[in-house]
Design brief:
Strand order of the largest sheet: 1-2-4-3
Number of helices: 5
Distance between the termini: 26 Å
Shape: globular
Structural class: alpha+beta
Largest sheet: 4 strands, mixed
Number of strands: 4
Order of helices and strands: HEHHHEHEE
Length: 130
């Protein structure tokens, strides 16, 4: 999954464009040498959203809009009570993103265990600012 997202960012964005990966994906910025947008928020895991509040996050996104936003769903984040950004928390932030960005690419990937059984699915949406 990481390869798909990294490849898309490298091939479909210019080095000067900003890319934010939510809820937690600033490693992609390192891998692709793209700067994040969104102001002070690089991490939108549930604890951060709860701490800062959705209104503040939306204000930062409006002031410093990234050119692209990747919403990355990883079911292997058991450390969070509500791990699914846009599905279990941050509804106002996600509503704002949907109103200001168009989905340009979506994909999913099923992870298999050692015996070949499906364990879980990852998926992501890549959005471009209108």
């Amino acid at each position: 999954m990481t390869d798909y997202v990294t490849q898309f960012i490298e091939e479909k964005t210019a080095p000067h464009q900003t890319v934010s990966v939510f809820p937690e994906g600033y490693a992609f910025n390192f891998y692709t040498d793209r700067k994040p947008g969104g102001g002070i928020f690089y991490n939108l895991t549930a604890p951060y959203v709860e701490t800062f509040g959705e209104a503040k996050i939306i204000d930062e996104l409006k002031k410093y809009p990234p050119d692209f936003i990747v919403i990355y769903f990883n079911p292997w984040w058991p450390q969070y009570e509500n791990p699914f950004f846009c599905k279990q928390y941050a509804f106002e932030v996600c509503s704002y993103i949907d109103s200001a960005y168009d989905t340009v690419y979506s994909d999913s990937y099923s992870a298999l265990n050692a015996t070949g059984q499906q364990m879980s699915s990852f998926y992501f949406n890549i959005k471009k600012r209108r």
